[in-house]
Amino acid sequence: MAEISAAAVMKLRKASGQGMMDCKKALEETNGDFEAAMELLRKKGLATLQKRAGRETTQGRLICRKSSDGRSMAMVTLCCETDFVAKNDDFLAACEKLGECALKADAQANPQDLMDIEVAGRKFSDILTEAVSKIGEKIEIGDFARYTIAGSGLLGSYVHFNEKTGAMVEIETDSDQTAAALRQLANEIAMHITAIKPIAVDRDSVSPSILEQERRIAAEQVKNKPANMVEKIVEGKIAKFLKENCLLEQPFVKDDSKTVSEVLNEAARAAGGRAKIKRFVRFEIG
Fold this sequence. Notes:
Blueprint: H1 6-16, H2 20-29, H3 34-51, E1 59-66, E2 72-80, H4 83-86, H5 89-104, E3 118-119, E4 122-123, H6 124-135, E5 139-148, E6 153-159, E7 165-173, H7 176-181, H8 183-196, H9 208-221, H10 227-245, E8 251-252, E9 255-259, H11 260-270, E10 275-284
Antiparallel strand pairs: 1-2, 2-5, 3-4, 6-7, 7-10, 8-9
């Protein structure tokens, strides 16, 4: 076996980011071959991922990134097994790289597609494998969404202080001037979405399957009522459900005397224009 020098161990440690003992062991197993040792350390990360494949990843970080021109925004979650690892420097560094990858991705991409995107000359799959080999815990991409404004409008976002919950919203406007006036409100609406958890922008956006499920539940709750009253009661319950769960109809979190729709319309009129919420997404880890 070739003698492994301290300089060789330090070189491998600097290149791989692994611990001194892991680097020394890898060099010993590869007879001092630097490239082979690097590959061995990467395989160690892949082996860890495979061994812990069945583990739940209920901790992690939510990352939100906006393009320099403000017309694109991406939100993505990187998940791990424990809160301790979610605070680890290597994990946080991987989060930063993932944010860059998310902003580069196509709007139609899925979380797995991010693994093949390169940042600083490396695929994210390699960055993730390296982080896993250092940390020894399962890490995986969770949710992902990317919005890009086509015409006049703006994007708002909010990430809760625990960095595990957040939302992103796209607002269409009649002009760039109106959009500029609504920047703060867009972020406040994203905060509202994070806190209140709407399921759709408006009634027309609610999934038919969700409505059907709610109708079944409501009908079961009033099955002992007179037959001529059941339909009216069920429709009343559905109307209440929609009012509570559609974003535009919800009392605004910062002023519950007005709905989100009223707050947005008032702000747009004050700016001399019009605005409409096009879509939103809300992510939560755990």
